[in-house]
């Protein structure tokens, strides 16, 4: 069985239950948005899936594999953060190619794949620019392209639009939606923005206090009191 499965996932920091007994399955190709106020455990949830934290209780399965046996760098997930973390001394294409280093792809093939990802994200004209010569929206798209070329089993997006101004946020949101329609990629997208969660998610998971309070298709979750 592909996709992501979280079972009784629990992570406590001191007396804070950051993630508290979360059960969740994300099907192959499904786009799940996780929404909730600051401190509700969204980032911790992503870090647990990515393996940047070990759970106190429970586990993570990706494509049927028990992640307690798979170290972070071997997990087939791509994590994209709000602050895009591009290498300032590398050009756009070099930043994208960096995502392929982990896969040991031959150089010519790597270039081809990077070009294709850049094309998909509307970056074909800025391949040789440096990050400080890009808009915020372009930088975030480079981060997405770098994730894309790794062809991971799942994308983990942590507030990827939060650093953008209102207008760019809307256009980049539309880009994400289009990209998802193209790729049908398994995605967990964390946000505190309810409208964003409702627009992007095939399914919306509402978190509070480390727990899932509601989960369902956007209309359903939205309609409930
Ligand atoms: P969100 O992403 O929804 O804002 P987080 O997952 O960042 O929530 O945090 C959930 C709770 O866990 C918060 O109370 C936060 O202060 C706490 N927390 C998160 N990471 C750590 C950490 N490394 N050390 C201590 N407490 C943490
Ligand atoms: P160490 O204590 O040596 O860091 P751990 O056994 O705590 O090693 O964790 C090894 C790796 O597996 C880490 O990446 C950790 O995040 C992850 N991990 C541990 N237990 C689980 C689990 N039940 N589900 C998913 N990932 C886990």
TrEMBL record:
It comes from Phytoactinopolyspora halotolerans. GO terms for cellular component: ATP-binding cassette (ABC) transporter complex, substrate-binding subunit-containing. Keywords: ATP-binding, Cell membrane, Membrane, Nucleotide-binding, Translocase, Transport. The chain holds residues 2 to 226 of 334 of the full protein. The keyword ATP-binding applies. This is ABC transporter ATP-binding protein. GO terms for molecular function: ABC-type ferric iron transporter activity; ATP binding; ATP hydrolysis activity. Residues 4-225 form the ABC transporter domain.
């Amino acid at each position: 069985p592909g996709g992501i499965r979280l079972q009784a996932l629990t992570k406590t920091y001191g007396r804070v239950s950051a993630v508290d007994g979360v059960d969740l399955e994300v099907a192959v190709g499904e786009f799940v948005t996780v929404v909730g106020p600051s401190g509700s455990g969204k980032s911790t949830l992503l870090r647990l899936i990515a393996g940047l934290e070990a759970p106190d209780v429970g586990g993570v399965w990706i494509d049927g594999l028990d992640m307690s046996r798979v170290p972070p760098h071997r997990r087939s997930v791509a994590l994209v953060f709000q602050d895009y973390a591009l290498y300032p001394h590398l050009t756009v294409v070099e930043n994208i190619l960096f995502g392929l280093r982990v896969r040991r792809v031959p150089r010519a093939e790597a270039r081809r794949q990077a070009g294709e990802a850049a094309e998909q994200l509307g970056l074909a004209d800025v391949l040789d620019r440096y990050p400080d010569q890009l808009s915020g929206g372009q930088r975030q798209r480079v981060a997405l392209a770098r994730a894309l070329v790794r062809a991971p089993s799942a994308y983990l997006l942590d507030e990827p639009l939060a650093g953008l101004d209102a207008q760019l946020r809307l256009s980049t949101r539309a880009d994400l939606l289009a990209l998802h329609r193209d790729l049908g990629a398994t995605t967990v997208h964390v946000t505190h923005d309810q409208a964003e969660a409702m627009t992007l998610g095939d399914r919306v998971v509402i978190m509070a206090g480390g727990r899932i309070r509601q989960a369902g298709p956007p209309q359903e979750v939205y309609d409930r009191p």
